[in-house]
Amino acid sequence: MKITDYVSTQEFLALQERSNAKAAWMLFVNWAMIAAAFYAMYRYPNPLTIVVGAFILAGRIHGLGVIMHECGHNIFFKQVWLNQVIGQWLAAGPAFDDLDSYATQHRKHHQMAGTHDDPDLGNYQAYPVTKSSFRRKIMRDLTGQTGVKLMAFKVMGLTGLLSADASKRKAALPFAKLWLSQLMLIGVLHLALDAWLYLVWLGGMMTFHMLAVRLRQVAEHASVPDHFSKDPRDNTRTTYTNWFTRTLIGPNHVNYHLEHHIAAGVPAYHLQHMHELLIDRGAYKGTRIFTGYSEVIKHAVSA
Q1: Cα 252–Cα 253–Cα 254 angle in degrees, nearest 5
Q2: CA-wise closest residue to 274 among 39, 97, 14
Q3: Rounded mean pLDDT of the chain?
Q4: pLDDT tens profile 40-50
Q5: Which DSSP symbol is given to 301?
């Protein structure tokens, strides 16, 4: 599929236009929600605010991951240096990741999507799965088992930092950057509110966030018409959201994933408009657009 079969060159150029104002606003909204959640828990510390706070923070960690994704493509801000600096220190690092490492891996996913060499294929090729299998996955996420494995990997990544081997030190640098970001967050919380709030951030990351990532991966590529078709309409999915699912699973327009695979140079804040244009022009005749994540799960999880 070529997007220019459905939109004019002028329309396509407009869709690809970067906007520092729109990027800054999206970044601000995410961090404002984070600040509000931290303040609410600090001001009214009780089990309910902590659970709700962990849920909101997990969704915003997910949201920062989406911004990292945009910066990794160098499409969020107009300037490459802004994508690199903001993407690392206000998105990737706080979201327990490293921008350069992520971008390198993610580019392979785009290059190899629709082939057996897609590095992300293991996340969704096995679907549909049984309900019992899916329940086990969800329980591992919500009880922190998936998160513990991920955190162990990211902590162990630091082991080469003091090695005499230059290659091992270089491999450890991405992990050092992400943990430096976490230390900075702890410091800010200590100065502004209270450092104990970081435990909620970490807990949200290791539970609700792991679930959110799994559900998003299922929605994007699981149980699609053909994993090995080069047409994105066959191997990728767009799912509509509501206010609740945008809080956790589909933040920052990441739900328009089919559009992103059709034209990876279109920033997230233009994907909804691109979707509407393609719908109007008939690009999705015969393509199923799911109305929500619950519908996707029913489709991808068998009896």
Answers
A1: 95
A2: 14
A3: 97
A4: 999 999 999 99
A5: E
Give dist(CA 66, CA 88) in Å, integer. Answer: 12
Tell me the mean pLDDT in the region 68-90. Answer: 98
Q: Which domain holds residue 80?
A: 3-302
Q: Is the pLDDT of residue 293 over 70?
A: yes
99 pLDDT exceeds 70? yes
Q: Are 238 and 255 in contact (CB under 8 A)?
A: yes
DSSP code string of 75-102: -SSSSHHHHHHHHIIIIITTTT--HHHH
Furthest C-alpha separation in the chain: 60
Residue closest to 269 by CA, chosen among 11, 6, 15, 99 = 15
Q: Which residue has the tokens 């799960």?
A: 297
Place of tokens 């706070």: 53
As a whole number of angstroms, the distance between CA 201 and CA 184 comes to 13
Q: Give the single-character DSSP code of 124.
A: T
Over 70: is that where the pLDDT of 38 sits? yes
DSSP, collapsed to helix, strand or coil, labels residue 261 as helix
Name the β-bridge partners of 177: none
- Tally of structural domains, the chain: 1
- What's phi and psi for 19, nearest 5 deg? -130, 115
| The pair of three-digit structure tokens given for residue 65, joined into one six-digit string | 């991951």
Q: Which two tokens stand for residue 123?
A: 């996340």
Distance (Å, whole) CA 80 – CA 119: 26
**Collapsing DSSP states into helix, strand and coil, what is residue 30?**
helix
Compute CA 17 distance to the chain's CA centroid, rounded to the nearest angstrom.
Answer: 22
Which residue in 200, 270, 226 sits closest to 60, CA to CA? 200
